[in-house]
Specification:
Helix 3 (59-78) packs antiparallel against helix 5, helix 5 packs across helix 6 (121-150) and helix 5 (86-111) packs across helix 7 (159-184). This protein has helices at residues 8-27, 30-52, 59-78, 81-84, 86-111, 121-150, 159-184, 192-202. The protein has 211 residues and is mostly helical.
Length: 211
């Protein structure tokens, strides 16, 4: 991946974070400067990971990841969007679950080396769905562990917050997995299934049996 081949949205986010870091350091707001730097570093991590394992991330894939990190770490924590807007947590949980559904399907498709006939389309999609939901469950366990160990309030209202998060995770994972099903059926070449198609076309070596 190259820095010069990204979405304008990504460049805008990077510019905001870099400016926030410089201004916060100058004004002595070191905690905000740290959050801005941490968010910027995390947004660059997928690019480093992709280069390390020779994976080509489509522009829309990478932009979605950067937007999620920006919304979670910078807006969510530094500017307290989770407390100001009740729907912020729902939006990010749904978006992450959708993304994990897509990633889960791609992971399953890689395991089958791109052979769309190795298993029934619904079976591959179900495996992607299970992976995405499992990630959501592990995150809720992580939140519970952090709250119990360090006295944080990541679960907000406790059981109710956890259950709604899991419900949103399931819905997002379903649509992500459904996009994988649409890809296998040759549908929706411009939407979510189109993103999967673009990833596959850019990483042919991972899908040797794909035709």
């Amino acid at each position: 991946m190259k820095l010069g081949n990204q979405s304008y949205v990504v460049y805008l986010i990077w510019a905001v974070l870099a400016l926030e870091f410089v201004v916060s350091m100058f004004e002595g707001r070191y905690s905000l400067a740290f959050v801005a730097l941490a968010t910027l570093s995390l947004s660059l991590a997928p690019m480093i990971f992709a280069d390390r394992f020779h994976i080509r991330l489509p522009v829309r894939f990478f932009a979605g990841i950067v937007l999620f990190i920006f919304g979670t770490v910078y807006l969510g924590e530094a500017f307290d969007f989770y407390e100001k807007y009740w729907w912020w947590d729902v939006l990010l949980h749904g978006g992450s679950a959708l993304g994990f559904g897509l990633i889960g399907f791609i992971f399953v498709f890689i395991l089958f080396e791109g052979d769309r006939y190795a298993a029934l389309p619904w079976a591959m999609s179900f495996m992607a769905f299970a992976i995405a939901v499992s990630i959501g469950v592990l995150w809720e366990i992580f939140e519970f562990a952090m709250d119990q160990t360090f006295g944080l309030n990541m679960q907000k209202s406790g059981l109710i917050d956890t259950m709604w998060d899991l419900i949103v995770d399931v819905i997002g994972a379903f649509f992500g997995a459904w996009a994988g099903y649409g890809f296998l059926q040759g549908r929706d070449k411009s939407g979510l299934a189109g993103m999967i198609r673009e990833f596959v076309s850019k990483n042919r070596r991972l899908f040797r049996r794909h035709k």
